[in-house]
Fold:
Amino acid sequence: MTNSKITDVFTDDIQTQIETIAEVVTASKYVVGMTGAGMSVESGIPPFRGAGGLWTKYGTPRMDDYSRFKKDPSGWWKRRINEEIDEHIIELRDALVNAKPHQGHHALAHLEAMGCVHSVITQNIDALDEKAGITNLIEIHGNRTKLRCIDCGNRVALGNFVPLYTPEPCVECKGIVKFDTVMFGEPIPDDVMKNARSEINKADCILAIGTSATVRPASGLIWIAKSNGAKIIEINPVKTKLTPICEVSLRSTAGEALPLLAKSLSK
Ligand SMILES: [Zn+2]
Structure:
């Protein structure tokens, strides 16, 4: 068998599974997309874990970021502005600055606009879902282009990944302001967690895309949906802990599979 023959077989197989996924989505009343690091990798953003991950390369960072920030917020911001930061943060930040949504992000936005996907819960902080036009979006680990008050939760757009000045105190309550991104040791903000749980409780189908399903609380949400009776569809180039509980588990990337799914559902 030649290589091209193998590719044909593989492509046929993907198309068949895409049709099956389209049938499950069509039969569902409320579909929630859940996206993880695998989605962003295709936009050139390195993951933290696994082969090529930032922590694999530079070592696992300290897990007490949030308590260190709270002890000395102005010192933290000063170091950030002066670029006195870990190498893995510089590599991530530079990747974020250059990243653009890929065709998988655009297809997911299209699926939402068509009413096939009702909301997206993302673990990614890169704002690419928002840029692609996804509107009912829950960024469970925050959005790196925003700032958030740790006292009242008010968010403002930074509009950039690179802060040039220490942010002013919160306009609402004069509280301490940090990146919206959730730090190690920081709880997921209440409003975000409440929205995520509410979406999960409405869902009868979860589209789990590029998530290894190992990072809480996002991984826990998928299991809650499953125990509520939701069907789980996985799109991931590799097997994950979710694979055994999936209705369909497609070995593919978001950039390949989601445009095919959108095309299939547009028929
Ligand atoms: Zn505030």
